[in-house]
Amino acid sequence: MDGTDSVNRDDLTRYQRFGRRRMVRFARKHGGEGLDPWNWEYYFRYSAQPSTRAMKWMLRSLPASPRCGYCGAPFSGWGGAVVRPLGYRPSRKNPNLCAACVEASPPGGANLEIGVLFADVRGFTTFSESAGTTEATKVLRRFYAHAESVFFPEALIDKFIGDEVMALYVPWLIDSTIDGVTDEVRANVTQLMLEHAKELLGAVGYGSETGPEVDIGIGMDFGEAFLGHVGSDAVHDFTAIGDVVNTASRLQGQAASGEVVLSERVACHLAAAAGVTEQVTLKGKAEPVTIQRVRWF
User: What residues make up the domain containing 74?
Assistant: First the structure.
């Protein structure tokens, strides 16, 4: 996509247009200037402001899931009915995010250092065959609810892919006061990712007397990715792409039930080793990669 504003203003609600004007002012634009791909840092800084965070807290307090993986706006139930007229409906570019967050964001995207976490339910296909669709759906909804409660508000839940969750950790969403991605920022982001992984495992029942309600494995990586709008106007998505995304997904596939697999790019920013170091061969990688396997339970 080019640097022009690809969103037709007629497609935005009055509330969305108001929000965009605030965003334009926050990005220090003048007059009728629009947002461009260079404004992505300002977009995330704006999203982390106290007033915006307060709005997100209110949206997340409304029932019910599914909801936007960025701001937490509900898409269903009476909560969804209340906020839908304001533009909080599933985005045509990514059904896991809302139009208020995606359609009103800058065009294009930017290369940013981010953390990527994948959490996957193990053996879900086999479980679905024996338990039936209704029970399998209930299990997935509980898993999604746990993911939302753990990852929000710091992470952006990019996708719910069947029995898998993909979460993105954008430094400016975690701390709007940073001036750039320093080693201290990288350490804070990777430590948060590790804490969220442990919280998610605990939320589904690892370490409890009854054991986990579902078996999940987690993989994570940290590095540069393209974050923004991907595709054409006909087939569109708001997501992250790059080696860091692919690696996190592959590492998740290496994780056993209740296990977290970290890339070396995550482990090197932690204050101390989190688990056992080893080398594994990942699909698409010419050379073995160094990982750490972490188990708390």
Answer: 9-102
pLDDT of residue 7: 44
Q: Is residue 182 part of a domain?
A: yes
User: Per-residue pLDDT tens for 55-70?
Assistant: 888 998 898 778 888 8
| Model pTM score | 0.82
Q: At what angle do helices 124-131 and 133-151 cross, to 10 degrees?
A: 140
Tell me the HSE value of 234 on the side-chain side, using a 13 A CA sphere. 0
Q: Does residue 3 lie within any of the structural domains?
A: no
In the prediction, which pLDDT does 278 show? 95
Give the model's pLDDT for residue 35.
Answer: 64
Tell which of 55, 77, 102 closes a domain.
102
pLDDT below 50 — which residues of the chain?
Answer: 1-10
Domain total of the chain:
2
Based on the domain organization, do 275 and 134 belong to the same domain?
yes
CATH label of the domain that carries residue 143? 3.30.70.1230
Q: How far apart are CA 16 and CA 9, in angstroms?
A: 9
Tens digits of residue pLDDT in 140-151: 889 988 998 899
The answer to whether the CB of 112 falls within 8 A of the CB of 242 is no
Residue 45: DSSP 8-state: H
220 Cβ contact partners less than 8 Å away, ≥ 6 residues apart: 115, 116, 117, 118, 193, 194, 197, 248, 251, 260, 261, 262, 263, 266
Specify if 4 maps to a domain: no
